[in-house]
Design goal:
The chain has 221 residues and is mainly alpha-helical. It has one domain. It is built from 9 helices and 4 strands. The mean pLDDT is 95. The termini are far apart. It has helices at residues 3-11, 21-41, 64-67, 69-87, 90-110, 133-154, 160-182, 189-196, 202-211, and strands spanning 45-48, 58-62, 155-157, 213-215.
Length: 221
Amino acid sequence: MFIGHHAVGLAAKAVAPRASLTALLAAALLLDLLWPLFLLMGAEQVQIEPGATPVTQLNFVSYPWTHSLAMSLVWAAAFGGVYFWLTRYRAGAVVVAICVLSHWVLDFATHRPDLPLYPGDSRRFGLGLWYSLPATLAVESIMFIAGIAVYISLTRPTRRWGTFFFGAYVVTVGLLYVAVIFGPPPSSADALAKYALIAWIIIPWAYAIDLFRINRKPLAA
């Protein structure tokens, strides 16, 4: 899943209103933010395989340290623990941890069977929504639009930069989604890993949004 993960981060504002969009999106995208780093270190493997599914031309050969269920739980606990240590916001810590874990759940729904339960597990799991391009586009688009609607309903810009940065984020993520699905495959796994590092720009971008948007309703002390 791609923009569906963004949808989770946006919608999570509803249950953790004091959490920043930076933290919520970082949590929802964490496994994919870590993945290119593990690829570049040689700890995980991916192959370019045109026609792997109608949605993606990638064969995720091995990614147990970022995308196994067990490690997703570890990353979720670590992210939630660090967040609580920094903010003392208990509800926010629980929500960001759930956002991290939601990544594996959504990938389980969309990927063909390629997700392990733990490092060293030879079994692979996935329900294969990616075998249908129309269904994938419909599900992810509805999720993304719903996430945007939730976030906009809960926040307002303090200056026009708040509208600009958020609008630019929505458009950019949408265009990248189209490019990932309909664009040509990467020239190599190494090129893919370096290209995937672009996802890290979401962190400062979300921070910029946070600077110019506030909650519509006052927060309880």
